[in-house]
Amino acid sequence: MSLNFRFAVVSDLHIALPHTISDHPSRFHLVEVSIPALEIVLENLEKLDLDFLLLPGDLTQDGEPDNHTWLAKRLLKLPFPVYVVPGNHDVLSLLSTGQNVGLKDFPYYYQQFGYKNPEQLYYTCEILPGVRLIGLNSNQFDEQGKQIGCLDEQQLAWLRQVLADIDDNELVLVMVHHNVVEHLPRQSQHKLGRRYMLKNAPLLLQILRDSGVNLVFTGHLHVQDIACDRNVFDITTGSLVSYPHPYRILNFRTDKEGRKSLQIESPRVESVPNYPMLSQKSREWMGDRSVPFMLKLLTDAPLNLPIAEAEKLVPNLRYFWADIANGDALFDFSEFPPAVKRYFESFGAIATDGSPKLIDNSTILFI
């Protein structure tokens, strides 16, 4: 089958109606722009001949019923199908608290967006002839009610069965909130990075690889990055409410010889009402809040710098995370001590041979 279609990905919307906005002085993202930014994106997408839209989680600020209700109603007005999965901000507990929806409530808000069976927290559907989507739930809770990013055994068994039943000619797309491939150096090993990864990512990757699934769409990390682990691409999309306010437009193509490719472009929202220079504002917003995060990176393993030494280096790292979020970052920290220089430069968009590998925002992947 010759597959040719176009779709979009918008991640980590963090929708917050004005009366629900809460003030967290240390947050890196601007929920204040969530609704106007989304409206601009949807207006742009409606001008395109899209086949569908994917929203890989963190749809709302903190799982507020009003925000879920608003978003579901807004998505119904679009001229193309939309599919969602829950993020950690969408479901703060297993059951509803009244102020926040529970995990088991989430599918009932989005029965028109993948969850035809709202009793189940994951789903599969044929979204186009020859194209199947699998939406997974990566939000679990331990006995103490602590949120964990992983897939439960029942879901994994279901996934294996779904993949076993799929026609060999079907293209399978997977959407899940937590990352399944590392997007940062040693992300799964570092205490600041591993909370963004699926705890049992290696198991999921093996299941997908065994079934010939190549494309996974994630969010959560709020960065523009494309990573690959043995033929499985994890395309993570930055947050609509964080610098650089990106979204993705993707074209899947099959050429005359049957070769399949995925062309990716990443527009940004540059301004919204009250924020005419949104990109500059949010970059500075992130830089203003960067010191505690940078100190942790410097004083934790593997660098383990003394606090006094770390504090001297922090000013040079003001925009480090913003540059990571922007994608395709290349760093030069030649003024840093050798070990620190190597560590921070390793976060750049470089291939194993040391050459630039600028694929995070605009590229063509061959599937």
UniProtKB/TrEMBL annotation:
<dbReference type="InterPro" id="IPR050884">
    <property type="entry name" value="CNP_phosphodiesterase-III"/>
</dbReference>
<dbReference type="Pfam" id="PF00149">
    <property type="entry name" value="Metallophos"/>
</dbReference>
<comment type="similarity">
    <text>Belongs to the cyclic nucleotide phosphodiesterase class-III family.</text>
</comment>
<keyword id="KW-0378">Hydrolase</keyword>
<dbReference type="InterPro" id="IPR004843">
    <property type="entry name" value="Calcineurin-like_PHP"/>
</dbReference>
<keyword id="KW-0479">Metal-binding</keyword>
<feature type="domain" description="Calcineurin-like phosphoesterase">
    <location>
        <begin position="5"/>
        <end position="223"/>
    </location>
</feature>
<keyword id="KW-0408">Iron</keyword>
<dbReference type="InterPro" id="IPR029052">
    <property type="entry name" value="Metallo-depent_PP-like"/>
</dbReference>
<protein>
    <submittedName>
        <fullName>Metallophosphoesterase</fullName>
    </submittedName>
</protein>
<dbReference type="InterPro" id="IPR011239">
    <property type="entry name" value="Pesterase_cyn"/>
</dbReference>
